[in-house]
Amino acid sequence: MQQYIGPEGILEKRSKYFYPTTSHFYRNPPQLVRGDMQYLYGHDGKRYIDFFAGVSVVASGHCNPEIVERTMEQLRALQHTCTIYLTQPNVDLAERLAEVLPGDLCRTFFVNSGSEANEGALLLARLHTGRKGFIALEQGLHGRTYLTMSVTGLQMWRSDPQLPRLDAAEDVTFIPRPYEQGMSADAAARRSLKALKAVLEEKGGDIAAMIVEPIQGNAGIIVPPDWYFPEVKAVLEQYGVLLIADEIQTGFGRTGRMFAMDRWGVTPDIITMAKALGSGVPVAAFASNDAIATSFTRPSASTFGGNPVSSATALAVLDYIEANRLPERAERLGGLLHAGLEELAARYPRVLSEVRGAGLMLGAELSAGDTELGARLVDDVLETLKDRGFIIGKNGVGRNVLAFQPPLVITEKDITEMLAALEQALEEAVHTASSVAQEGVHHGDHT
Ligand code: PMP
């Protein structure tokens, strides 16, 4: 029998052996010890329905037996050789990706994480265009390496204080994202497009690529209007600037299509993938068409990238996604969840101010007018739902957005049950919001 040290034991070791930057969800976090499709289990045997999938990773379910079986088979046969030796799983995976990737994207370079995939994509864009600059959206998140952190607009994830201010970055130009609270979606997207055109007019000839999340994840689940990305792509093409779609959160069925860009019929020049591709086994990649790939001739290699075990796993993941039509499932169940959240927004407008997203990538913003209160309510709701057996996520610029990005194998019943628990939590949030408002008046009396 496994001896568990329990949440306190883990927190103690974390505080002693991890860096203080590492944070965790929940005031009273559980120790998670087992996963089974959409379920997670605590060390005390408590079962949770998972609505966050390890931050959008285990789309095919925790420890999915069909996938684990094939991972184990490869693990027993051959674990690692590196690309300097010939093995089959990585070429089979690259061939398979060429079938599912948008348009003419057909060549793939394998790495281990989302950050690395974006880093490689940015390098490829520079090699292909011979230009140095990049355009990125404000509030975007692209990774922890220096280049990917440099194109990350979300202040929270620009960990190095020596990075320049967004408006003073030399090689990266940030433009407004196609969203602004209090502005119509079309107006915000038009503003973004106008800013893009102005940058291109001024220095389009110096810019290698624009990098975007098709639906911003960490910044609170932001879906642009349907016309936005087709127009962005067309404008970029006029200046020979490549479009890099960071599909690290959105890829592999989550948004109701295999890739989010498929929603708008846009073929990016370079696409990056990670998270759901391995459903928990680290595998990531960037891909492009033949013409762009031809520019990548200088030596480059990733020791672990596309190793036999991660490649065999990713192939099993793709088989599972296709056999179980997970994109369609995400679209249908996402519609139900979206409708349920909208209903709650109508019933609790004071706390639940906006519902956003596509497929099973949904966000519900709490108390948009008062971000600090919203963030507190989000933490309360997360805690309450966890105690009632539901793991949901949070994100947003002000960390005041509830995030729903469950394994795509979740059922209608799971969603109905979670919505009932969420309703109770929102009822409590209304009381908290009123007492905070009263405290505010009370404080006001004394100042
Ligand atoms: N891009 C996006 C859109 C992400 O959400 C993340 C991670 N949250 C990354 C890049 C970085 O991926 P990784 O943590 O695997 O390096």
Explain what this protein looks like in three dimensions.
Helix content is 42%, strand content 15%. It is an alpha/beta fold. The chain binds 4'-deoxy-4'-aminopyridoxal-5'-phosphate. 4'-deoxy-4'-aminopyridoxal-5'-phosphate (PMP) binds next to α5.
| Helix vs. strand class | alpha/beta
Give me the Rg, rounded. Answer: 22 Å
- The secondary-structure element order is HEEEHHHEHEHEHEHEEEHHHEEHEEEH
Q: What is the count of β-strands?
A: 15
Strand content: 15-25%
Tell me, briefly, the overall form.
globular
Query: What is the share of helical residues?
Result: 40-55%
**Measured distance between first and last alpha carbons:** 60 Å
How many alpha or pi helices? 13
Biggest beta-sheet profile = 7 strands, mixed
Strand order in space, largest sheet: 4-10-9-8-7-5-6
What is bound: which ligands? 4'-deoxy-4'-aminopyridoxal-5'-phosphate
**Spans with pLDDT under 50 lasting ≥5 residues?**
441-447
Mean pLDDT: 96
Properties at a glance:
447 residues; alpha/beta; seven-stranded mixed beta sheet; four-stranded mixed beta sheet; 13 helices; 15 strands; globular; binds 4'-deoxy-4'-aminopyridoxal-5'-phosphate
Summary of the model, kept short:
With 447 residues, the chain is α/β, with parallel strands linked by helices. The protein has helices spanning 6-17, 53-56, 65-77, 89-100, 114-129, 146-150, 185-203, 228-238, 290-293, 308-323, 326-347, 371-387, 412-446; strands spanning 32-36, 39-42, 47-50, 107-111, 133-137, 172-175, 207-212, 242-246, 270-273, 284-288, 352-358, 361-366, 390-391, 393-395, 401-404.
